[in-house]
Amino acid sequence: MATATTYLIQTFELKRKRLVPGTRDVAPTGSGALKRAEAIATRKPGAAALQIRADNETGELESVVILGRFGEVPEDFVEMVAGG
């Protein structure tokens, strides 16, 4: 069982006065994801940097960690990521 770590930037946009997920992008490192999310949040309402660990073979998710949130991020984002 091989585990892969992916660093993801999730943007948020305003649609009908509500924050909704926008585009996603992949970064090579956690610090890179944090820097890009912070930079994106200066142009968009908000962004979050995530670390995702999953099994390479099955695709089964092992963990999701929010590395940082910048700007406006939906209040329920933490619950959504945690699977609650």
Topology:
Elements: E1 3-15, E2 18-27, H1 30-40, E3 46-55, E4 61-71, H2 77-82
Antiparallel strand pairs: 1-2, 1-3, 3-4
Q: What does the oligomeric state look like here?
A: single chain
Question: What kind of sheet is the major sheet?
Answer: 4 strands, antiparallel
Number of domains: 1
* First-to-last CA distance: 26 Å
Instruction: Tell me the strand order in the biggest sheet.
Output: 2-1-3-4
Roughly what fraction of the amino acids lie in strands? over 45%
Stretches where pLDDT falls below 50 for ≥5 residues? Answer: none
Which sequence of SSEs, written as H and E, runs from N to C?
EEHEEH
Query: What is the C-alpha radius of gyration, as a whole number of Å?
Result: 13 Å
Count the E strands: 4
Going by helix content, strand content and strand pairing, the class is alpha+beta
From the spread of the alpha carbons, the general shape counts as globular
How many distinct helices? 2
What is the arithmetic mean of pLDDT?
Answer: 92
Residues in helix, %: 10-25%
Describe this entry's structure for a reader.
The chain is α+β, with helices and mostly antiparallel strands. The chain has one domain (3-82). Helix content is 20%, strand content 52%. The chain is built from two helices and four strands; from the N terminus they run E-E-H-E-E-H. The chain has helices at residues 30-40, 77-82, and strands at residues 3-15, 18-27, 46-55, 61-71. The protein has a four-stranded antiparallel sheet with strand order 2-1-3-4. The protein starts with a strand and ends with a helix.
